[in-house]
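Good morning,

Attaching, inline, the backbone tokens for the sequence recovery test we're adding to the shared suite. The designed sequence is right after.
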């Protein structure tokens, strides 16, 4: 299940729980397109709760839309992932290592407000 959270014009903020569907991925990509059209840098806040799977039928469409973003990675700024599952935090750290020019941080659920402040304003604890 996907919930879009209120955020600034240069921020994509989402809460994802349970199963991630193709419709969820489409909604995220639509929001990303909107933010990239309005802002030079895009910051991302993702809060996950109990992810138990990804609907495979939606991945092909998502990948088709996501591939052109590899040429725009310099447009991404701060990315915060708040996760209650270790595998999500580990996956985020792996992605961060592969994309060292994007500023990633992972947070525990009780650090949610700090994560959101860092994404929206660049405040919070230093790396």
């Amino acid at each position: 299940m996907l919930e879009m959270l209120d955020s600034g014009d240069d921020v994509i903020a989402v809460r994802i729980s349970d199963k991630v569907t193709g419709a969820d991925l489409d909604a995220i990509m639509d929001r990303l397109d909107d933010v990239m059209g309005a802002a030079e840098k895009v910051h991302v806040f993702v809060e996950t709760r109990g992810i138990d799977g990804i609907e495979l039928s939606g991945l092909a469409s998502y990948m088709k839309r996501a591939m052109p973003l590899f040429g725009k990675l310099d447009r991404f700024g701060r990315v915060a992932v708040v996760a209650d599952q270790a595998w999500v935090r580990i996956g985020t750290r792996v992605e961060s290592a592969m994309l060292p020019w994007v500023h990633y941080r992972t947070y525990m659920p009780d650090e949610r407000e700090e994560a959101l402040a860092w994404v929206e304003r660049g405040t919070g604890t230093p790396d």
